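Tutorial handout. Part one gives the primary structure; part two gives the three-dimensional structure as tokens.
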Amino acid sequence: MEIVLASHSNLAKGMYDSVTLIMGKQQNLHYITAYVDDSVDFKNQLVEEIEPIKDQKIVFVTDIIGGSVNNNVIDLTSQNESYFLISGMNLPLILELITKISSIKDSDSANEIEENLQQVVELGSSGIKLIKVDNSFTEEESF
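Part two.
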């Protein structure tokens, strides 16, 4: 199963670079940076970038729901039941996705994959916290 990070500008590349730093190079992780070059149509860029993996099961992760990147990926994923979409890209979500992907089998049904991806979304979302830092907080206490 392949993972494609897609974002406005360079967020997807930054996430890719961060994952590589933390977990090493991931063969199934790819990224697409939209609108970095004004002369490139994102829809065409998307189709071209996934060409080598288009026959695989793919999980797309986009930066923001309702944005043009997400909407173009929706158009693409709606045409293929082996494509899945998660919106709301963040680093904990991507790390969890990479970890979980290894337990998803090619023989798993779309429903089984969606259940696994829902778990990833829930775990990725649980890493979002408001942290109140006051003068009594020290680095030593954070560990």
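Part three, for discussion. The first helix runs from residue 11 to 23. The chain has one domain: 2-142.
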